[in-house]
Amino acid sequence: MAGTIVADTLTHSTAGSLTTDYVVNGSAKAWVNFDTGDNPPVADGSFNVSSLTDNTTEIEVNLTSAMSDIYYAPVSSGGSGTVTNPSNRLVATNAQTTAKVDTEMYSAANANETGHNHIVVHGDLA
Amino acid sequence: MSTIIADNLTGKTAAGDVTVTSEGGAATFQLQQGLAKAWCSLDDTTTPVFFDSFNFASVTDNGTGNYTVAFTNSMSGARYSSPPNVYSGEGDLANISNEATGSFRIRCFDDASPHPAKDIDCYSTTHGDLA
């Protein structure tokens, strides 16, 4: 049987102490890595992501457990995998609903582009 | 108020799965998956160094705005999530490339089109599975 510990503070023997609200509030609630060049896009690595929805230029990242409101923080950036040439791509990320993050990747010329998407979500779960 | 004094947290049912109750109480999530596995704040000097970092062993200068940062403890696969960004008062930006289990590159670019590579302080936080 799994046990439950109810505590306010975690103390390491040498590294210091941390109140457990930092564990709950400070943990990422989702992360995902996917390539918009895949058709359909799939999560190559993820946590708390149930699926990706391809809306042509826009990819919807669907969360397994929803956030408590839409005022969470999805942090994102683009990448190019093993391509060594500069990719200089932007990823626009929008906390669309409590259960969905919308993303869109652009090139330096402000055109929709493909590439690796790196997204991390912080905030409060429902 | 209670305090846990311990050097290790290990799941009872599965060693790598410690469950945390969400802020709203309606869900639980896996502690290990939510923790950042590495982060760095990089000082772009002649020889780049870390201002500060966690689980990064080294930074290598590959050229203008092109830095390889190597983990101390490697990730389990190359498809982790590590969005970088730059210290900038302009529209400069950063990308990630060459993702591998032991390292990746942070690539920094100027805000002016066509966005040439630029030496600039930058940072990144890595989420994913450790090996």
- SS content category of chain B: mainly beta
Q: Which two chains have the most extensive interface, and how many residues on each?
A: A-B, 54 and 51 residues
Query: Uncertain segments of chain A of ≥5 residues (pLDDT<50)?
Result: none
Could you tell me the strand content of chain B as a percent range?
Answer: 35-45%
User: How many H/I helices of chain B?
Assistant: 1
Spans of chain B of at least 5 consecutive residues whose pLDDT stays below 50 are none
Q: What is the oligomer described by this structure?
A: heterodimer
- The share of residues in extended strands of chain A comes to over 45%
Could you tell me the radius of gyration of chain A in angstroms?
17 Å
> Span between N and C termini of chain B?
35 Å
- Based on Cα principal axes, name the global outline of chain B: elongated
List keywords for this structure.
heterodimer; A: 126 residues; mainly beta; four-stranded antiparallel β-sheet; 1 helix; 10 strands; 6% helix; 48% strand; B: 1 helix; 11 strands
Describe the structure in your own words:
Chain A is built from one helix and ten strands. Chain A has one helix spanning 20-26, and strands spanning 9-12, 16-19, 30-35, 43-47, 49-55, 58-63, 73-79, 90-97, 100-106, 116-122. Chain A has a four-stranded antiparallel sheet, with no helix packed on it. Chain A has a four-stranded antiparallel sheet with strand order 5-6-9-8, with no helix packed on it. A two-stranded antiparallel ribbon of chain A has the order 1-2. In chain A, strand 8 (90-97) and strand 9 (100-106) form a beta hairpin. Chain A is elongated, with a radius of gyration of 17 Å. Chain B has 131 residues and is mostly beta strands. Chain B starts with a strand and ends in a 5-residue tail after the last strand. The chains are: A mainly beta (126), B mainly beta (131).
